Amino acid sequence: MPPTDRPVTRNRRPNTSAKGADADAPFEDLARSPEQRSFLEQPVPLHVGHRERLRERFERGGADAMPDYELLELVLFRAIPRRDTKDLAKRLIARFGSFAEVINAPSERIREVKGAGDRVASELGLMRAVALRLMRAELVKRPALSSTREVIDYVRAAQAYESRELFRILFLDKKNKIIADEVQGRGTVDHTPVYVREVVKRALEIGASALILVHNHPSGDPTPSRADIDMTKLIAEAARPFSILIHDHIIVGREGHASFRALRLL
Predict the structure, then answer these.
(1) What is the pLDDT of residue 55?
(2) Would strands 210-216 and 245-253 be described as parallel, antiparallel, or unpaired?
(3) What average pLDDT is seen over the chain?
(4) In angstroms, rounded to a whole number, what is the distance separating the alpha carbons of residues 178 and 141?
(5) How many helices (H) and strands (E) does the chain have?
């Protein structure tokens, strides 16, 4: 054929004979790496929509509209951002019994539950610390004796679920407002050493006019023992010459609380 001035054009198609090529795939898909294409083909995890639905339910009805395990799921979202948390929330509730007991469980026991690691234990511990800080902040704003319910709620949250006895003192000023909140002793499952002289000395150091004594019974039963009653009387007698009053001794446990003042033991 005679030569022509027009360039010869050909209808080129992608080389489908190359290894790994897909003859039916769109050109833009062929430009992606196998890893990118695999990611795009994955279905959207079901827990993504579940999380949004839980958040919407919480916003509409608050915590009272949700069972314990769903409220716990919301808490776990921060610690586990890319995995379903429903099964773990149910395992934690089954292990410890309730939302409150999960939040108050020791970190080492949280880690024993399948699927709960350091981040989960840390997140639950942080939530407990934040809740206590808020409750304490509310208490110091008003006289303790006019906020008996708030005082009991705070000390129960602070130590009702502890596995060892703690002896705590709330120090009050002349207006019965809390000026200090201190744990004075840490003991065993059924005993805490209390040094009467140290209690009075500390009250004098910070200028307290009255005290509320607090300790917990890890057994769960807050009923005062004979030793509890005798110890309280010794502190009251030692504080009296310094015009320091014992307003109450509150014992807390998983099953409730006991107030010496309400029981007329003071």
Answers:
(1) 82
(2) parallel
(3) 84
(4) 8
(5) 11, 5
Residue 181, SS3 per DSSP: strand
Class for domain 143-259, per CATH?
alpha beta
Distance (Å, whole) CA 265 – CA 260: 5
| Whole-prediction pTM | 0.73
Cα–Cα distance, 21 to 17 (Å, whole number): 7
**Greater pLDDT, 147 or 1:** 147
* Superfamily grouping for domain 46-132: 5' to 3' exonuclease, C-terminal subdomain (1.10.150.20)
Q: SS in 3 state form for 145-178?
A: HHCHHHHHHHHHHHHCCCCCCEEEEEEECCCCCE
| Alpha carbons within 13 A on the beta-carbon side of 180 | 17
Q: Buried b vs exposed e over 114-152: b needs ≥16 C-beta within 10 Å?
A: eebeeebbebbbeebeeeeeebbeebeeeebbebbebbb
Domain boundaries, the chain: 46-132, 143-259
Task: Locate all alpha helices (DSSP H) within 8-67, ordered by sequence.
Answer: 27-30, 34-41, 46-61
Over the stretch 193-220, which tens digit does the pLDDT of each residue have? 899 999 999 999 999 999 999 999 999 9
Phi and psi dihedrals of 184, rounded to 5? -95, -20
CA gap 237, 246 in Å, rounded: 9
Query: Among all chains, which residue has been given the structure tokens 């769960």?
Result: 220
